[in-house]
Design a protein that fits this description.
- This protein is 33% helix and 23% strand.
- It is built from ten helices and 13 strands.
- Strand 2 and strand 3 (130-136) form a beta hairpin.
- The mean pLDDT is 89.
Amino acid sequence: MAANLTPQYLKAEENYRRAQSLDEELKWLQIMFAEIPKHKASEKMQMMLKTKMSDVRKEMEQSRQGGSKKGGAKSFKIPRQGAGTAILIGGPNAGKSQFLSVMTKAKPEVAPYPFTTQAPMPGMMPWNDVYVQLIDTPPITPDFLEPYLYGYIRGAELILLMLDLGDDDGIQQCVDVLERLQTTKTRLANVSSLDEDDVGLSFTKTFIVPNKIDLPDATERLELFHELYPLDFQEFVISSTEMIGIETLRNAIYESMNVFRVYTKQPTQKEPDRDKPFTVKQGDTILDLAEMIHKDYVQKFKSGRVWGSAVHDGTMVKGDYVINEGDIIEIHVMP
């Protein structure tokens, strides 16, 4: 991307990746264009943003006239919750639903036959005193990929690509998922980003999760997968039924959300509320937290007090104070 991108631009870019409607896409593209530094090095990117905004406006007009290519497709909007979202994808019978039931309190149908999952199912994975949203999805095959999955993959912090080690067909089914997405503008990668030359081309951070390592010949299948299809994704080998590798993966999922926990307290209270911490993105400021608490707090913000590892306890701070893990924050607003 162009040099010297502002924090406001990067936040708009993140929201653009998560957009679930054309209106949202256009809104965040416009903010990205307004925030991008206007110099020669960014000229190409400015033109790309203008083109993308024009394309979105045309698609919006087609949709209003009833001619959108997306018309009639199934859509499942699941509100974002918790510290972030990880999407489970894979081929038929890869063990995604069993994994969801182990990691959360969700109760998906679990059966030893393919296409048990017909619609996305969310669950909340606990990690210490916060939660991460996991969403199970229907299987992906060379001939079957629900259109709404593109938005899910694009907008997630993390993708968990399940590899079935319990069946000889598992390797090819996993490769089918990779190859199917590779032909689209929604792709899997080691790091989440937008393409420098095409803002519509999105890459989402992915873990490869070989599952069912407890079954016969699973180790040999995993070695064959490594030999035939070496990937640079982080790998976490598990068994959902035997709980092998589950806690290591749980920690990695949370860490991949790139968030800090922060605790708030009222000026009249001695102790913070430690039951329900807020989770903020690394690099967020106390003003970002104020906006999460109440939209009016940003305009009315006066000052803050912080107890944490980076300051002396009770230090008065301004709105640009960058939050650290475990901070206790007291926000003062004007009446």
